[in-house]
Specification:
alpha/beta; 52% helix; binds guanosine-5'-monophosphate; five-stranded parallel sheet; 9 strands; Rossmann fold
Length: 233
Amino acid sequence: MPQGTLFVMTGASGVGKGTLRSRLLERVKLYYSISMTTRPARPGERHGVDYWFVDRARFQAAIEAGAFLEYAEYVGNYYGTPRAPVERHLARGEDVLLEIEVEGAKQVRERAPELGIPAVFIFIVPPSLTELRRRLLLRSGDGDPAKLKEIAARLARAEREIREAGEVGFDYVVTNDVLEEATDDLERIVRTERLRAYRREDALAAALSRDPELEAELDEMERWLMERGRTRN
Ligand code: 5GP
C-alpha cells in the first residue's frame, strides 16, 4: 500500500487557515495533526483538540528527544508538530494535514525527502495586506494596546512570509477571498494529488481485470452481431 501524502498548509496569521482547515476536513478524509505549543489557550480552545498546550520545559524536552517533525518560534511562543502520529498515519496510507507557519514548512520541505514522505505545500494568501489588517483588527475585539502590538507583529511577519514564499517552493497558492471558493480550491488540490499515478496502482490493476460472467455475455453478443452482419451482406 502506498503511504499517504502530507499536506502542509501555510499562511499568515489571520488569513483564515483555521476556518479553511475545518471546512476542508468536512469534505475530505484527512488526519489533522495537533500541534504542541507554549502559547496559552484562548477562550474556547481545548487541550488535545486545538493544540497540546505545554510549558516551555515540556516543549524543550520534546525538542531534545527529537519528537518534532518541525518546530518554530512564532511571536514569542513555540509551536511544533509531533512526529510519531504523523508518520504512523502516513504509513497506514492515510493523508495527513499540517497547518503551520512558514519556518516550519521550510523545515518539512528540507526533511521530507530524507524521511521518504511525499509532501505537498500549499500557501494561503489574503487578497491584500490591507484586507489581512482588517481581518486581524476585527478579530482582536477590544482596543487592548498589547493586542494591537501583537497584530502589528503578525502583520509584519505576514508581509515577510509572502515576500519569501519563493524560497519555500510552494506547490500551490490559494487566495482566501471568498471562503467557499478557497475551500473548493483546497478540496481540488487534495483530490488531484490522490490521482497521482504512484497512488493509483490499485486502479491500474482494476483496469486490467476481467469479469468472466460478463465476458461470456459479451462473447454471445459478439457472435450475434457477427451473425447479423453475415445475413445482411
Ligand atoms: P495561533 O497562535 O494563531 O494559533 O498560531 C500562530 C501560528 O503558528 C499560525 O500561523 C499557525 O499556523 C502556526 N502553527 C500552529 N501549529 C504549528 C506547528 O506545529 N508548527 C509551526 N511551525 N507552526 C504552527
